[in-house]
User: Fold this.
Amino acid sequence: MPTSLVALLFILRSLIRSRVELQLENLALRHQIGVLQRSLKKRPKLTSMDRLLWVSLSRIWHDWRSTLAIVKPQTVVAWHHMGFRLFWNWKVRRGQRGRPPISRETRDLIRRMCRENPTWGAPRIHGELLKLGIDIGESSVTKYMLRCRKPPSQTWRTFLDSHPSLLGRGRDISCLMPPAQIRTGAR
Assistant:
């Protein structure tokens, strides 16, 4: 009885699904059978074309994980990431390395704007440069901005010397300490 019920459910499911999904599932299953027949009595060997097929199926078919039996779905996702990595390595090798260089005049202009307008941050300077027609990223503006050195903060000795009224008697700081009752929690 349960076998016939399962078969009936599969038939109902196949009636509801679209024809494209059925064709994609058929393609995926036939491909896996072909790979298994190609590597009989050995571990299945997948070629780069096999990987490309599964990566493209994962992009166009949302239910691709249900028919995958040879490898784990995470493996297909890793192949996809590897494809992106290979693409960007290829793109870099063609001569387009990193950010485009920033001209000396632009760097001097950024530093001058920073010096003359100390309250402006990188977003404001970036916006002004865009208004002037200089296409540069905000992170590059941040990189070439002048760093304003803040004065060092005062030490405790300087603080205590400048506030003698807090101390009461000379340099005795015991009056600043809380009473023992407060530390122990007693009232």
